[in-house]
Amino acid sequence: MDRKVDPRAARLPAGHQDAALLRHEQQFREVLEKHAPEQKDFPDAEIRAVATTCFRASDKYVGEIAGQHKADESKPQARHDDEERLQDLLARGKDKLSETEKTELAALRLRTSFVTRPS
Question: Which pTM does this prediction carry?
């Protein structure tokens, strides 16, 4: 049987790729049976579509994290400026912010969430 292997599964050692794919599909089926028994016979194509969507969203998020880390390395002061601006906006209170400032606050929160904090 010749089927395409997900790029993330291709990173796994040979022989583990199919096992990983089957394990994820089985876990998805178990969740469906538990939480949505009426969809127990959910078509495989739709399961793969949902999984693909989740993987793409995850890849996008990880890409944004990598991009922010590169930006922080090239301009270390920018992270400090972002944190200061975030504190300024939070100090004013969400109720008193304009729509533009609320959008800026959301973007700042997202960017600062990408920062690796020492443990």
Answer: 0.45
